[in-house]
Design goal:
Elements (H helix, E strand, L loop, with lengths): L18 H34 L4 H13 L2 E6 L10 E4 L6 H8 L4 E2 L7 H5 L2 E2 L7 H12 L7 E3 L11 E2 L12 E10 L12 H10 L3 E7 L3 E2 L6 H16 L2 E2 L4 H13 L7 H4 L8 H8 L4 H13 L5 H11 L2 H10 L1 H9 L37 H27 L1 H6 L1
Parallel strand pairs: 1-8, 2-5, 2-7, 3-4, 6-10
Antiparallel strand pairs: 7-8, 7-9
Helix pairs in contact: 1-2, 1-6, 10-12, 11-12, 11-13, 12-13
Length: 425
């Protein structure tokens, strides 16, 4: 299976794009609001029951029935594979309530590893730990916990963040696999009609309200055979093995994308200026787009885009900043933008000659008349169609174009100011 791109692992839009589904959602909306209000009151009773009853099979049965009223249906597969002697369950992560779902089918504790603590941590069913400790110290404390035969098993989500559960798994962190040598993999799926199961930027409170709003959410817990770490096997290799096993069971790809990569991707989506969407503009060729579009792009105040534009400008000084920034907003990559501008030099020349970016042609030279006595038949950046495949070839190709562009700008500056005629006098 091909490795998915990072944006394919997460949903940023909860609502469907299909018009029929949107129409059905609009019809369901009043019903969903009524269910939300009713289920909030039922949810309070579920919370009180979970607090009052001791952890046992009777409690799990009552909670399972009451959660079905809340629209949470839990199914279990291959329960006979669950080993009661294993002290560590390893699962993929789909929603903020995965630990509650697995607790409905078997009693276990999920250590909280974030900044949450106190009542909210306890109310959500987490086992509160010393969050100031390092992973090594936490693993040592949890090893002592697992040495107690009467202690409940631990449940970990080594992805450390949620995905949409459709394309791939985040890279498993290695430190949970240092707690015990034997783990029980758990493959978890979640499905619901009309809406996405979770979105990348939603809080657990928002996700809870959507669970109460939708008709139902179906969770399926699949137990896999326990795995033991071989003597001398590094924890990361063992983590990768478990990740591959769970991904194969779910029919997903096992990626090397981490939680930090997800956070960076979300940050980039927040700060990168949105692409300008206009049907009338997009249907026209680049050489015929209105100057208003260039002006709107030139007003982009994102510091990172401006910095990237300056890097492109150093390589292609004859291209206006407005054109560079327009392409950067779409590609978000310096190399891709340089490639696009080099391969599409004719359109850039047409925009320069039409007056959309006068004064940026000579890259810092003094302004002069807009008419030129002579002009090369083709601009120097159109000499080659593509970059070399290797970094060395690409660097040499860019250096050649840079020197050609400087020579091109210098010759036009001399012709513009008539320096040749003055020297001949």
């Amino acid at each position: 299976m091909d490795a998915p791109r990072i944006e394919q692992l997460f949903d940023f839009n909860r609502f469907p794009h299909d018009g029929v589904l949107l129409f059905l959602l609009a019809l369901y909306f009043p019903v969903g609001l009524c269910l939300l209000v009713l289920r909030i009151f039922v949810g309070v009773h579920v919370f009180l029951v979970s607090c009052a009853l001791p952890r046992c099979s009777l409690r799990r049965f009552i909670l399972r029935v009451m959660c079905s009223v809340l629209g949470i249906y839990v199914k279990q597969r291959s329960s006979w594979l669950r080993d009661r002697n294993v002290k560590l369950y390893i699962s993929n992560h789909v929603t903020p309530f995965d630990h509650n779902v697995i607790n409905i089918v078997t009693s276990c504790n999920t250590p909280v590893l974030g900044s949450s603590s106190g009542f909210l941590c306890w109310a959500r069913g987490f086992l509160e730990l010393d969050t100031t400790s390092s992973h090594t110290e936490l693993a040592g404390g949890l090893q002592q916990y697992c040495s107690d035969l009467s202690a409940l098993p631990l449940l970990f989500f080594p992805e450390e963040d949620t995905t949409n559960g459709r394309r791939g798994l985040l890279k498993f962190s290695s430190w949970p696999f240092t707690v015990t040598d034997t783990v029980q993999p758990v493959a978890l799926t979640a499905r619901r009609p009309l809406l996405a199961v979770s979105t990348a930027e939603s809080s657990w409170v928002t996700e809870l309200l959507w669970i109460l709003f939708v008709p139902f959410t179906v969770y399926q817990v699949r137990w896999l055979s326990p795995l033991s770490r071989q003597d001398g096997e590094p924890p990361q290799d063992f983590a990768n093995k478990v990740q591959e096993l769970i991904a194969k069971e779910l029919g997903l790809a096992s990626t090397q994308i981490t939680r930090a990569d997800k956070a960076e991707h979300i940050k980039r989506k927040r700060h990168v200026a949105p692409q300008i969407r206009s049907t009338n503009v997009d249907e026209r060729p680049r050489s015929q787009r209105s100057p208003g579009l260039l002006a709107s792009i030139s007003r982009v105040d994102d510091v990172r885009i401006v910095g990237m534009a300056q890097k492109v400008k150093e390589v292609l000084p004859d291209i206006p900043l407005s054109i560079i920034m327009r392409d950067l907003v779409q590609t978000n990559c310096v190399d891709t933008t340089i490639t696009n501008l080099l391969e599409d030099g004719g359109d850039a020349t047409a925009e320069v000659s039409s007056g959309t970016a006068s004064g940026e042609v000579a890259a810092g030279l003094a302004r002069g008349p807009t008419s030129y006595t002579t002009r090369p038949a083709t601009p120097p950046w159109s000499a080659a169609k593509t970059f070399g495949k290797s970094p060395v070839d690409r660097h040499m190709s860019l250096q050649e174009r840079k020197e050609a562009l400087y020579e091109y700008a210098r010759r036009r500056y001399i012709e513009k100011h008539g320096l040749n005629r003055e020297n001949n006098m």
